[in-house]
């Protein structure tokens, strides 16, 4: 069972989401999810290290998810008419599909100065630039 790290304070940003107290750009709408994120991604003694970048994780599944970002493989395709978006993880496609069904497609406001790709927010842009 995951436990909250001692003396860890979780604060909310302007959008109402919890900000990662470890300094990464991750924001989550649920405090329980943030506790899990900190326990998995920012554990003091990570056992699994990505060979392609500097990130390290406390569980194998988190490392496997990270490795998908390096392959460039995007096997999960949106089936919504007129949408050709592809994702490397089924969970990301599911979140996209739910937004499409609810008519909540958000405008991508943050733009990368290097490749001009657009992102929903600054946190996603920072993650892209890492």
From TrEMBL:
<feature type="domain" description="C2H2-type">
    <location>
        <begin position="48"/>
        <end position="75"/>
    </location>
</feature>
<protein>
    <submittedName>
        <fullName>Strongly-conserved Zn-finger binding protein (TFIIIA)</fullName>
    </submittedName>
</protein>
<dbReference type="GO" id="GO:0005634">
    <property type="term" value="C:nucleus"/>
</dbReference>
<keyword id="KW-0677">Repeat</keyword>
<dbReference type="GO" id="GO:0000978">
    <property type="term" value="F:RNA polymerase II cis-regulatory region sequence-specific DNA binding"/>
</dbReference>
<dbReference type="InterPro" id="IPR050329">
    <property type="entry name" value="GLI_C2H2-zinc-finger"/>
</dbReference>
<dbReference type="InterPro" id="IPR013087">
    <property type="entry name" value="Znf_C2H2_type"/>
</dbReference>
<dbReference type="GO" id="GO:0000981">
    <property type="term" value="F:DNA-binding transcription factor activity, RNA polymerase II-specific"/>
</dbReference>
<keyword id="KW-0863">Zinc-finger</keyword>
<feature type="domain" description="C2H2-type">
    <location>
        <begin position="76"/>
        <end position="106"/>
    </location>
</feature>
<dbReference type="GO" id="GO:0008270">
    <property type="term" value="F:zinc ion binding"/>
</dbReference>
<dbReference type="GO" id="GO:0045944">
    <property type="term" value="P:positive regulation of transcription by RNA polymerase II"/>
</dbReference>
<keyword id="KW-0479">Metal-binding</keyword>
<dbReference type="Pfam" id="PF00096">
    <property type="entry name" value="zf-C2H2"/>
</dbReference>
<dbReference type="InterPro" id="IPR036236">
    <property type="entry name" value="Znf_C2H2_sf"/>
</dbReference>
<keyword id="KW-0862">Zinc</keyword>
